[in-house]
Design brief:
By secondary structure, this protein is of the alpha/beta class. It contains 14 helices and 25 strands. Helix 5 links the parallel strand 10 and strand 11. It binds nicotinamide-adenine-dinucleotide. Nicotinamide-adenine-dinucleotide (NAD) binds next to helix 6 and helix 7. The site of nicotinamide-adenine-dinucleotide (NAD) has 32 residues, from helix 6 and helix 7.
């Protein structure tokens, strides 16, 4: 039932700390069945700039399960027409979307920095990933390869084709607010599915921008539906909705488990991309300066809020001291500030909860774990930092592999340096966490590089490069508690968003029996 509309703006987790006179705050709407509509609840939540909590970016619908039901109905209505649209025609619309995204790239990047905090260059990279994903995946409209294979019997043809899954629910996190939605949305669409997408409550604007561009590209009404709101209401309504055949989720391992359980209850397909605790191994023959650059970029890029962040630096004891000295000097030199300022190296973290969590882990590192705080460790609160969620780049040294700060995902600008005795020791440490997303090794020794590549059990591995920096035409995802066996990006993502159909064509004109213990050959 529709509830009475309330003109009430609810605060999001990014609490407003001061009131400044600013331009009127825009109210955004859900996109359902090709129409921009308010939530049935009539309620809104605020999207706040994490670098300046006095800056309210917009008010977004605080949606309910009623909105999800409406969005699913719209996706259902649009499904038959979209799945019957030839894939090369679907691709044409998506190529148009790619062009539109290019045109808006700078504006979308600025919006992203404002709502998420990452520096402008990274936000531009995030939008670019959506563009790259769109072009690459739209090309699948003229491939979507299946295969043919010999049949067991004469005058019989065997082949395999892809068919769409149906209605897909896409649930996304805030750290890549346009790239990750695009990684799900574009493959879902090229395969002929229709979708309901729910962005993270901290970054609804970037997904709004993506969906608005879909509308402009001419994607038919109901094919893409956007509903904003909280995970435990809107997200849960999606995971429990019987008509959503697939839930594609990216977020924390804890939430992923809830999503997976709900999907298991109703036999829905579920693809999960979750947390990481990624190691860079630095061997004694490594180019140390290069390794430092990779470690700093991997640990403090996006303020450490990447699933692939280099949160463990496993360093050979022969170069440990030298590495730590250079790492600390480099970390201290980083300029923390508003990501919109081109001089900024590292922006804020996402919200007040994140500050509490990260500062809590820094306490754990110092007090409970007994590691050495080599630099950073403080929240920045004065001057330009007063209204934002800024934390110093933080390095812990003398870290043992089993300490909590070396095991748990902190998801902030905190990295740990763990000593290793040998390549075997380093590989064992790299594998010694519950996650398995990304890992890297810095070495000049090809044998060591290949050994680590073979032995480290992750979905992504780099040699002489940091743990971050995936490209859209290679599969992306992780092992162990990072995933559930699926891969996004590459052509492998098509296996999430399509189902195989095996087709047998018997043109012999007679009954040919398979699966019995008799060989019946034509003419025999
Ligand atoms: P989160 O798990 O808190 O939220 C992710 C999404 O799930 C949000 O849209 C949220 O609203 C929704 N959600 C929350 N509770 C829900 C519920 N009960 N049912 C359904 N949906 C629910 O994660 P986050 O804080 O947004 O993102 C950070 C996490 O994401 C980190 O752990 C990071 O490693 C991970 N991540 C993983 C990848 C990857 O590809 N492996 C990429 C980016 C981020």
């Amino acid at each position: 039932m529709a509830q009475a509309k309330k003109a009430v703006a609810k605060t999001s987790r990014k609490q407003t700390a001061r009131t400044t006179v600013r331009a009127a705050v825009k109210t955004y709407q859900n996109y359902i069945g090709g129409k921009w509509v308010a939530s049935e609840s009539g309620e809104l939540f605020e999207n706040i700039n994490p670098a300046d909590t006095g800056d309210t970016i917009g008010r977004f619908p605080l949606s309910t399960s009623d909105d999800i039901n409406a969005a699913v109905n719209a996706a259902q209505e649009a499904f038959d027409r979209w799945r019957r649209t030839p894939a090369p025609r679907r691709a044409e619309v998506l190529f148009r979307l790619g062009e539109i995204l290019i045109g808006y790239k700078d504006r979308f990047a600025a919006d992203m920095t404002r709502e998420m905090g990452k520096v402008l260059k990274e936000a531009g990279g995030d939008v670019q990933e959506a563009i790259d994903c769109t072009y690459y995946t739209a090309g699948e409209g003229r491939r979507l390869h299946g295969f043919t294979t010999p049949a067991e019997m004469p005058d019989k043809f065997a082949m395999c084709t892809r068919q769409p899954v149906g209605l897909c629910g896409l649930i996304t996190p805030w750290n890549f607010p346009m790239a990750i939605p695009s990684w799900k949305l574009i493959p879902a669409l090229i395969c002929g599915n229709t979708v309901v997408i729910k962005p993270a409550e901290d970054t609804p604007l970037s997904t709004y921008n993506l969906v608005k561009a879909c509308e402009e590209a001419g994607i038919p009404p109901g094919v893409v539906n956007l509903v904003t709101g909280h995970g435990d209401t809107v997200g849960a309504a999606m995971t429990n909705h019987p008509a959503l055949r697939l839930i594609s989720f990216t977020g924390s391992t804890e939430t992923g488990r809830i999503v997976a359980s709900a999907c298991a209850e109703r036999n829905a397909i579920c693809s999960l991309e979750m947390g990481g605790k990624n190691a860079i191994i630095v061997m004694d023959d490594a180019d140390i300066d290069l390794a430092i650059e990779g470690a700093v970029w991997g640990a403090f890029g996006t303020s450490g809020q990447r699933c692939t962040a280099s949160s463990r630096l496993v360093v050979h004891k022969k170069v440990y001291k030298q590495f730590v000295t250079k790492l600390v000097a480099h970390a201290k030199s980083l300029r923390v500030g508003n990501g919109a300022d081109p001089r900024t190296d590292m922006g804020p973290v996402i919200n007040a909860d994140a500050v509490d969590k990260i500062m809590g882990y820094i306490q754990v590192g110092r007090n409970e774990d007994g590691a050495t705080l080599a630099c950073g460790g403080k929240r920045l609160t004065r001057g330009d930092y007063a209204n934002g969620y800024f934390i110093e780049p933080t390095v812990f040294t003398d870290v043992a592999e089993d300490m909590r700060i070396a095991q748990e995902e902190i998801f902030g600008p905190v990295t740990t340096v763990i000593p290793a005795n040998s390549i075997e020791d380093a590989i064992r440490i790299a594998n010694g966490v519950r996650y398995g997303l990304s890992a890297a090794i810095y070495t000049q020794n090809v044998n060591q590089a290949f050994r680590a590549m073979n032995e480290v059990y992750t979905g992504i591995f780099y040699v002489n490069a940091s743990t971050i920096g995936a490209e859209v035409h290679l599969p992306f995802g992780g092992t162990k508690a990072t995933g559930n066996g699926h891969r996004e990006a590459g052509t492998q993502v098509l296996d999430i968003f399509s189902e195989w159909k095996s087709v047998y064509v018997d043109f012999s004109g007679k009954l040919q029996r398979a699966q019995i213990d008799t060989v019946e050959l034509a003419g025999n």
